[in-house]
Amino acid sequence: MDRNQLIGLLLILAMFVGYQYLVPKPPPEKKPAQITKTTKPAPGSASTAAAPLDSAAARTQFGDFAPAAVGEARDIVVENPEVKVTFSTLGGRVKEVLLKKYKTFDNKPLLLVDAKTNRTVLEMPTKTGKVDLHELYYQTTSQGGSVSGQPQVITFRANAGNGQAIEQSYTVPATGYAIDYALKASNIDNVPATAEVRFLWEDRMPQFENDLSNNRRAATINYLTTKDNFDHLAENESSNEAVVEDPVKWFAIKHKYFLSAFIAQNTQLNKAKFQTIVDLADSSTVKTAIADVSIPLADIKSGKGQFRYYYGPNDFQIIKEGVAPDFDQNVYLGYSILKPINKYFFVPVFNFLEKFIGNYGLLIFCLVVFVKLLLTPLTYKSYISMAKMRVLAPELAVIKERVGDDMTKQQQEQMKLYQEVGVSPLSGCIPVLATMPILFALFQLFPNLIELRQKTFLWAPDLSTYDSFIKFGFTIPFVGDHLSLFTVMMTISSIAYAYYNNQTTPQQPGPVNMKAMSYIFPVMFMFVLNSFPAGLTWYYFVSNVVTIAQQLLIRNFVDETKLKAMLDENRKKIAAGGGKKSKFQEMLQKQLSAAEDARKQAEEAKKRAKK
Predict the structure, then answer these.
(1) How far is CA 366 from CA 373, 457, 491, 547, in A?
(2) Which of 85, 155, 176, 457 is most buried (most C-beta within 10 Å)?
(3) Where can this protein be found (predicted)?
């Protein structure tokens, strides 16, 4: 590095540090103000008594709905085999949702909706002003209990003067996680025809998985517009916000493996604003997700206020149909070019194997074997290409000895040899490149497979996250606070595979020592994958071992003596026929010739400059 480069780097560093300390930071984002409750919970009671409310104050705040502003809050619990839902007569809303088949990472009940961390506002315009329908007390005849056979309907009704009424109905299915919801307003007159009901949902998302940092990156809000455009807030560890111009069909507050969603069935959600807020100092909250939308009041008055809540796992098999249009996009299956591989191959195969194999470590092993069997023709072709290179190794060594360290000349002579014997240098690369989409597809699929969540294998208590075989008690840069044994095993097997390949493949001429790089890459990936799911690194480890075994098996069926005889025969035929070049060989030779000419011109220019 010369003096000017050093000064430039120091100036850039100074500018960066100065920006961090001298440029004022934007003010922190304000969270929506908490709603003041009109009730005070009684200790040890599921119901709450209404605090005395001055009639004039009630009239001012709730208008015609002032009679419904006081009452007794009572919980109604309804459950099916999957969920236990607690409704409250205060607000006629969902107060708590327990997912019965899942636990948190520390083995506590998984409350997807909790009154302590979750709040909603349902603000409706009336002739006397706006009223939050979730602050009213509702009447109901529902008693709750277990749903058996047929869906159970829970209806809440709040009456006001002049025949005005609000009715909310929930239909809890006999099985499943989707709860139908109907909102109807009767005799709400003297309001503009374009008036809308505001629905605000704030969720201070608790931690359900062990890796808080990973949880924060995965937590977001997904949504689908009426133009069928699926989008989401950025998945990172910072606060994000989006104002959506088009109406929205549904939105989902997404944890890493769970969803709380609101779906419009016969209407649409307007003026949508979504926000996620991160407080890095608060380890009890992953993110605060806020969804703020508006519903046409005319639809609610006409009976079109039909909606659906989904409280459940982000499981592709469960949400792929029947919940909402394109709802399966909540499960991230990779980039658009890789998504079909996961959606139409890996996910179906994985779920098929689930029916027969209960141990998910063995299931992944079987998945590897199945994929490797499908790719056997490509593996065989790649091995044959390497075998041809080994057969040609003595001639390549002679070329190197003859031309010395001139890389350009080596490559030219090597291409000429390949042309003489009819070998394409790409024949060994194409089969390897063809397997890359599979590796990348799995790289994006495994972190999103809820099927691996809390599935144990060997020393790993949860295949959906890293196995912390060694806990350091402190953080090491690029490594973290742990060491994953599955990742170490994957790295060792990758190095072993590289060693095996390097023993059977001659060194190619060029400025980069590819044999050395084949050892460096696995070590680099160890740092990257140390915090990735144990299921993924176990897959890569098994894949490496099976590939080595596969190549050793193929080696028994390949006679390199016959292969050399075939290449010699090709040499004679090509020599007799004039030697037809492939397009790739022609292009590469032109580039090498151009490089050689440029080198000679540079040497001549140096000689002239010396004179």
Answers:
(1) 11, 14, 21, 14
(2) 85
(3) Cell inner membrane; Cell membrane
